[in-house]
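Appendix B. Raw example, untouched.
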Amino acid sequence: MIDCFQEHFELVHKQLRWLKDGLSKMCRQMTEIRYRQNPYGYFSEIVRRAKWVTGDDLDDLLLEALSKGLINEDEQKELMRADLIVRGVREGQATWLIVEVSGTVDIEDVDRAIRRSQLFARCVSEPVLAVVAGEFCPEEVLRYALRSGVWVLLDGSTFSPQRISRQN
């Protein structure tokens, strides 16, 4: 009887983990869609005239960078996997945002945004900023992101790494 109960418990636990993972993935995708549909609203504290860079435009830009030897094929693929790339104007200059979106922002998201923004900076002559966006960000991850120079967007609130550097 106990073995049967244990098997049933393990099955239910597996199903709950699968549901949690699926719900988390759906939340991330919905958040990404919201940021994509309204970039001028969500990114207005970072850049003006924010526009999502479509796949075709990004593909053209990265193919040119690849042909010039600025990035290799693996780096091109890495940049194509960025959740969102936005172009706008900051301090009178065209500026790019490399955005990683998660339901809950974690250190891996921050590191991925940094890595991809550094790669993308090799492809363009304008400034490139790393951004993480989501519904929730633990305090220690928020501090890590801001110390690392990464902007953080949390459902209507924008946290600037420049504010943190001015306070120190």
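End of appendix B.
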